[in-house]
Amino acid sequence: MKRIAVISSGSTLFLDADILEEGITEPLLGRLTYFTYREGGKTKLVIGQVTSVYMTNPWHENTMLKPIIKRRGMIPNLSGTTDLKMMTIKPLSVYEVSVNGEGDGLYPDVNAVYRAVVGGAPLKRSNMFTPPPSGTFVYLLDRALSVAITSAMYRDYNLVYLGYVYGSDTPIAFNLSPFAARSGSYRGLGEARMIGIFGLNGSGKSWLAAYLIIGYAKNPDMGILVLDPQGELSANFPTSMSKMPFHEMLKYACHRTVFAVPTKDLRIDPRDIYTVSLFLGMFVTRNLMLGRNERKLKYITLVLGRKINAGIKWLNPAAVYAEVTRAIYDNNIEMAAKELGMSVDEARNVNNIVKKIFGRFIDHFVRQVVDEVYHDSKKRTEITQQLNSMKDDPAALGLFSSFLRLFDTRSGVTMDEIIYKVLEQKAVVLLDLSGKYDDSLNWIDSKEFAAVYIRLITNKLRRRAEELFKGGELLDVLIAIDEAHNFVGKAAEDEEEMTELKKQIETNVRETRKYGIGWLFITQSTVNFSTDIYRQLHDIFFLYGLGVGADEDHMKERVPDEYVEIYQGMPNPKVTEEYWFMHTGSLTTLSAVTSATFVKIASPDEFLKMNFDMTLEDLKEKENVERAALEW
Q1: Of 175, 242, 243, nearest to 203 (Cα)?
Q2: 96 touches 123 (CB < 8 A)
Q3: Mean pLDDT of 140-163
C-alpha cells in the first residue's frame, strides 16, 4: 500500500488532495488511486484518477525574496523542501465493502478493507452521495487490488489485460466479452460494441488492434472477420518492428482457426445472380464503353439480374464458363463443345472458349440490355457498334479472361464460404484486400473492388443477423476494418461505390448493435473519418499524435479538457519505444463514469503472460518446424 496524499476539500465530482512527502516524487498525473470512507453506515472503497497536479511555494511567491531568486535561482533550505504539491482526483467508481474492524472514528481501517478485498470479499457497486472527510488518506492503486476488484465485479466475463495504468506497473483489464450469451462461453453483453482506434503511423494502432482481435478471439463462439486493405494483419506483420506473432497467438493461445485469404483467392459464386450482375455491369461500363457510365450502372445491373433470372443464360458468362470448364475437367469435352457450338478441337483451347463466350455475351447484352436501357436510337447504335468492335480486341479479351477467373470456384474461396467459416466454424478470417498479389483484377481499380466486396459481404452478414434476430438470437460477430478512412472517410465520397459503402456502414453501425454485429475501425485520424460513425462509437482508443487542430476538437467531444491535457503529455513512441493510449468508453473495468483511462500497451510477451499464462517461447514450441527458428 503506497500512501501518497490526504484529501483536503472537494465535492462528489472532484476532490483536492495535498500530496504527502512520501508521494512528492511519484509520477502521479493520470494515475489511478483509491481511498476508503464511511457513508450511511457503510464502508466504501473509491477508485479515482489524478487529473491534475500543481505546485506552489510561498517563499518563491514572496516579492521580497524574488531578487534573491533572480540572482541565485533558488533559496537555500526553502526552495524544493518547502514546496506544496496538490492534486485533483476524479472519482471513477465506488464499491461497498463488508469488512471487519471499525477503524478510528470517521475513518475506516484501510488495511482491513484492503485485506478483505484482496482476499475475495464481496463488493457491491455504489455511488458517492457526500464527499469523504478531510484527512482521508489516498493510496496508489496497485496490482493486487486492481486484479481483485476486477475479478470480483466481472466474474464470468472475458477480461483482457491490454497494458498498465499510466506511470505504473498496475495491469488494467478491459471487458471484451461476447455480444451474445452462448453455452460454454463467457457471459454475454446482450448487444454488440462499436469501437474506434485512432493514431498516427507508428503510434501502435495495428499492435493494439491485434490485441483487441486476439482478446475477442478468446470468446470461442464469436466469429471474427478482418477486412485488411493493406495486408499487414493478413501477412502476420511481415515488417513489424514489434515482432508480433499475431497468427500464432490466435492459433495457440486462443485455439482459433485462422484463414488468411488474399485477393487472388477471392471468388464469386456464378449462381449468386445479384453479385454477378453487379460485377458484369461494372466490367462492361469500366472496360467496354467509353466513360464510366455511372448513371446507367444501377439500371444495367437491374436489367442484367432480371434477364438472367428469366433464364437468358448467355447474359451470365460466369455460369457458362463454370459449366464448360467443369465439363472439360470431367473429361466431357464433347459436351463443352456442343454447349459452345464449336468443334472438339476448338474447345481444347481455352482462348477459343473465352472468345466464344465473350462474343455470345456481347450479342445478348446488345439485344437484351442495351435496347432496354438506352432509349435514344442514335445512342443505341453508337454503343452497339462500340461493343461489337470489342469482340476481336485482344486487350478486351484479356480483361474478360481475367474477369472470368473471379468466378472460377474450382479454386479460391467464395463469399458464402467465407461467411460459413466466420459463422459456423467460428474462425478468424483475414481478408487481404490489398490486391498486391493478384493479376486477375486488372479490369477494375483494387480500391473500388475492395469497396464493392466489403459492401456485399457485410450485407450478407446483416441479412443473416436479421434472420436470427427474428428468432430471438444474436449473431455474435466482430467486423474489423483496418485503414478505415479509405472506406468511411471524407475521400470515400468522391466515387460512387465508395459512397455506397460509406452509407451502408454508417447505417449498419447505427442499427446492427441489437443484432450482435460489432465493428472495430482502425484509422489514422478522426478528421478524415465519418462523423456519423464517430458519434456512434461506444469506445475509442486515442493513440499518439492527435492532440492538435481538428483532432483535438473531436477528442474534446468525447472527453473533458483535463484529459486532453494529460493526453497531450503522452510521450512520443518513436522516441521512447513505448506505446500509450487514452481510452474512453465502457470497456474499461475500473470506471463507472465518463472519463478517460491512460494505458501503456503491453509488449507481446507481457500480453501473453497476463492473459494466457504463456510466453513467446511457448508459441515457438507449438509452431511447426519451419517457423520454430523464426525470431519474434
Answers
A1: 242
A2: yes
A3: 93
Cell of 561: 479538457
C-alpha cell read off for 534 = 464517430
Instruction: Please write the tens of the pLDDT for every residue from 16-32.
Output: 999 998 888 888 888 99
User: Do the bridges between strand 123-126 and strand 84-97 make them parallel or antiparallel, or are there none, so unpaired?
Assistant: antiparallel
For the stretch 7-18, pLDDT in tens is 999 999 999 999
In the DSSP assignment, the letter for residue 131 is P
> What pLDDT shows up at residue 241?
43
Name the DSSP class of 265.
G
pLDDT in tens, 166-182: 888 899 999 999 999 87
How far, in Å, CA of 201 to CA of 485, rounded? 13
Question: Measured between alpha carbons, how far is 222 from 211 in angstroms, rounded to an integer?
Answer: 16
The size of the chain, in residues, is: 632
pLDDT of residue 613: 94
Gyration radius of the chain's alpha carbons: 31
Number of Cα atoms under 13 Å in the Cβ half of residue 99: 29
Nearest Cα residue to 253 out of 629, 607, 602, 587: 607
What span, in angstroms and rounded, lies between the C-alpha atoms of 357 and 380?
A: 22
Residue with cell 434472420: 467
SS3 393: coil
Residues 6+ apart with CB under 8 A from 35: 7, 45, 46, 48, 110, 132, 136, 137, 138, 139
Supply angle C-alpha 590, 593, 597, rounded to 5.
Answer: 50
Give 318's pLDDT tier (boundaries 50, 70, 90): very high
> What pLDDT is stored for residue 327 in this prediction?
82
Please state the pTM of the whole predicted model: 0.89
Question: Which DSSP string corresponds to 157-220?
Answer: S-EEEEEEETTSS-EEEEE---SS--TTSPPP-SS--EEEEE--TTSSHHHHHHHHHHHHHTST
Bridge partners of 104, per DSSP, are: 107
Chain centroid to CA 160: 15
Q: Are 509 and 193 in contact (CB under 8 A)?
A: no
